[in-house]
Design a protein that fits this description.
Layout: H1 5-8, E1 11-14, H2 20-30, E2 36-40, H3 41-47, H4 49-57, E3 61-68, H5 72-84, E4 89-93, H6 98-115, E5 121-125, H7 133-139, H8 146-160, E6 164-166, H9 169-179, E7 184-187, H10 206-211, E8 216-219, H11 221-224, H12 229-240
This protein binds cytidine-5'-monophosphate.
The site of cytidine-5'-monophosphate has 15 residues, from strand 8 and helix 11.
Amino acid sequence: MEINEKIKEKIVLALDVEDIEDAKKLVDSLYPYVGTFKVGLQLYTKYGNEVVDYISGKNSNFFLDVKLHDIPNTVEKASENVVLRGANFFNVHATGGLKMMQAAVQGAKKASEKLNKKPPVILAVTMLTSISQDVMNDEFEINTDVSDFAIRLAKLAKKAGMTGVVASSLEAKKIKETCGVDFKVLCPGIRPAWSTKDDQKRIATPKFAIEQGADYLVIGRAVTQAPNPIEAMEKIYEEIGEIKCLQH
Ligand code: C5P
């Protein structure tokens, strides 16, 4: 299959596996299709830099999904280290506040200047999907609508100079309307019509997510657990390729 670079750039593959050999196999077979591999805490806390160096060795981008959340000084230093390590994407919790997010941007900027490369994509996690309205009301005693709160945090992230946010495709449109079209939205919970839902609740197909404004799609089990991951990925390319502005 001929790779459409506009589609490739949007594909973020979640390497949520327990064993590094499984991660390496996925990288080996899928790197021609994947813009960025996402390494989360599960893999990073077990194998550290071995896994990200393997991805870099394929000349692929990686997203260190570390969700930093600490005092601004610590986040600035950690962000600098994440970027010096080679991450092309990383993220922080927006609930760390404006100063903490600004510190992340500052740390990343320092590192990219040292490396003489373009600054990474820095994303804010607004509200974790595990934080329901009940958790907001009963545990945090905050009487705000959870999705309004997420939008408020997205605006704060924009003010801090973040590249964008992680959000459901169902909220992408509203975020773009509020924060502007250049503010990037990365959407998990992507499920092609032919795949299983797993434990995801608020799902969307790749095509729908992009039509709602998603800039990046996090794709995990729909491809990694498919009987034939390459075939699954090619089907996703075909589906996204139906969108006019993404055609060659
Ligand atoms: O396998 P699946 O496509 O469901 O993987 C989704 C990925 O996106 C996982 O790495 C998960 O941690 C991440 N994610 C999510 N929902 C969020 C934020 C991140 O599923 N709200």
